[in-house]
Amino acid sequence: MIWLKGILQKPLVATNENVCINCGKCSEICPMNKDVKNSSFVTSAECINCQTCVLNCPKDGALESRIGKKALKPLFIIIKVIVMFFGSIFAFQGARLYKLLPQSTRL
Ligand code: SF4
Ligand code: SF4
């Protein structure tokens, strides 16, 4: 069950104030306009986990994605978000709870 919790748990972006050089690039580049530099954690629903801030941070270890206390590679988070997004669509479609296209209408 721990692995299931890991899959379902939302990743968060965490800053390490001891390593950060306060360049502000993470806040400038965030497509959701989050003030990443001045947040210890970005956990809000506004973060789309795009990993742009983490990938563009010039200082190693200043910004990282975590699930719980475990730091994860940005590529893993991106793949996880894609799998969760499309996986949930296909699961709901398979259970006939969701349709991608509306039923055709006959005139
Ligand atoms: S992961 Fe993307 S949306 Fe989230 S804080 Fe970083 S740049 Fe902004
Ligand atoms: S991009 Fe990295 S080093 Fe620059 S302010 Fe953000 S966390 Fe700090």
UniProtKB/TrEMBL annotation:
SUPFAM superfamilies named among the record's database cross-references: 4Fe-4S ferredoxins (SSF54862)
Keyword field contains Ion transport: no
Annotated keywords: Iron, Iron-sulfur, Membrane, Metal-binding, Transmembrane, Transmembrane helix
Record's keyword annotation contains Glycoprotein: no
InterPro entries (UniProt xref): 4Fe4S_Fe-S-bd, 4Fe4S_Fe_S_CS
Single GO MF annotation: iron-sulfur cluster binding
Transmembrane segments: 75-95
Domain 4Fe-4S ferredoxin-type residue range list: 11-40, 42-68
Domain of life: Bacteria
Protein name: 4Fe-4S ferredoxin, iron-sulpur binding domain-containing protein
Protein's organism: Pseudobacteroides cellulosolvens ATCC 35603 = DSM 2933
